């Protein structure tokens, strides 16, 4: 069984994301890892592009998170999912790919409950040069992007730590009422540590995410 993702060419042109989609296809076609959603093939007609993808039976991890008691995962599941995403990212980085949009909505679950990293729409192949494009999801943006600085693979490390925090608490650490307030919290690395984040998890998140900024 496979999944079929349909993209309408007129919408891609309107959004000026044609090159972004072609880059996504090129990158994801060449990635082969147990925790990365496989792009099997693609084809197109006059109006649409069709992506034939590996099927992830249980869908978005975000929806699974929202179904949990208090809308957060326990430590066991948080550790499992964080490890599997880290494993996928290590493979990406060894192949000079930066994902740049790690978040629960871009993670899928197989029938057996394993992670599949998906949606490489913001990914880039960057073997040496640093990047400077502002992209990704507001609550997961690293300080470099917020401050308009260049960055490298460590933006994915930042997102991994934010992801682990959201697994354990149900929301990202810099969630605010406005974009500017979120930016300010990210620049200051203004983070609160609720009691459900135990010392071991706090140490992991701090080392993965914040070590470069202190």
From TrEMBL:
Keywords: ATP-binding, Kinase, Nucleotide-binding, Serine/threonine-protein kinase, Transferase. One of its GO terms (cellular component) is midbody. The active site is at residue 101. InterPro entries: Aur-like, Kinase-like_dom_sf, Prot_kinase_dom, Ser/Thr_kinase_AS. It is an enzyme of class 2 (transferase). The keyword DNA-binding does not apply. SMART domains: S_TKc. This is Aurora kinase.
